[in-house]
Amino acid sequence: MVVMEQPDTVLITGASAGIGAAYADRFARRGHPVILVARHHARLEALAERFSREYHVKTEVLPADLTLPTERARIEQRLAADESIGILVNNAGVEDGAPLTQTSPDAVEAILELNVTAPSRLIAAMLPRLLARGHGSIINIGSILALAPELFDGAYAASKSYLLTYSQTLHKEVSDQGIRVQCVLPGVTRTAIWNASGALADIPERMIMEVAEMVDAALAGYDQGELITIPSLPDIEEWRSLDETRRRLLPELSRYVAADRYKSDIPEDA
Question: HSE (CB half, 13 Å, CA atoms) of 157?
């Protein structure tokens, strides 16, 4: 008798709408049990009912505001203890395009709490268990603004730059221990956040990707084993060339002597 292995359960944050809901749909369609995390309980329940009906997979709802330490701790504890959870999708995030010169310290802290602290803590909670069992996946949803901070004001791009470099470092540390890491860098995507801000009205249609298109491309990159996935980039060699240029700089970035351009010419008779 052949025993079919149960697919890993996938925990998805920010799962009530947009990119998170699309990820939940795609993983449920693939036969994975899913755990949906977001603040909007009613939306999560509606998604859970649909996934159970259409895909016949176990779906669980865990309402939580990941900016609140007590609520976030419940999700951390679940990730640390539940052996069935093998895939984490860090999608929850907030964008705020207000210029740094017009942003309060509390507003900046709120962005960092959700975009930086929450994914870092969730990964840290889950990682020891994944390493012990020798397999699992972590998917971090970043932004192309990690590569182009000039295109957006405020702290948002910086928070997504953190996710990019965090993912690269994590991959270096765990890839040879059976843990897969992917960082997805979407461009402008037609989500509720963008619609609510009214920003889409000022962006050409050719630059706006639909959510389903983005998530399907990101999952194709996941299936191909990509570390960095840029869904809208036509030629992946452009990213590889940029990354290779960065790597060539490494031997020159820390040396015992400052570069000549920083040396003042001192007259011989001084």
Answer: 17
For residue 34, the Cα-to-chain-centroid distance in whole angstroms is 17
| pTM of the complete model | 0.92
The catalytic residue positions are 156
DSSP string covering 214-269: HHHHHHHHHHTT-SEE-TT-S-HHHHHHHHHHHHHHGGGSS-SS--GGGPPPPPTT
Which position has the token pair 């895939």?
A: 87
List the chain domain ranges.
Answer: 9-262
Q: For 48-94, how does the pLDDT look when each residue is reduced to its tens digit (9 = 90+)?
A: 999 999 999 999 999 999 999 999 999 999 999 999 999 999 999 88
Q: Residue type for 264, please?
A: S
CB 141 within 8 A of CB 93: yes
Architecture of the domain spanning 9-262: 3-Layer(aba) Sandwich (3.40)
Tens digit of each residue's pLDDT (9 = 90 or more) over 138-176: 999 999 999 998 888 889 999 999 999 999 999 999 999
* Pairing between β-strand 228-229 and β-strand 85-90 as defined by DSSP bridges: unpaired
Helix (H, G, I), strand (E, B) or coil at 66: coil
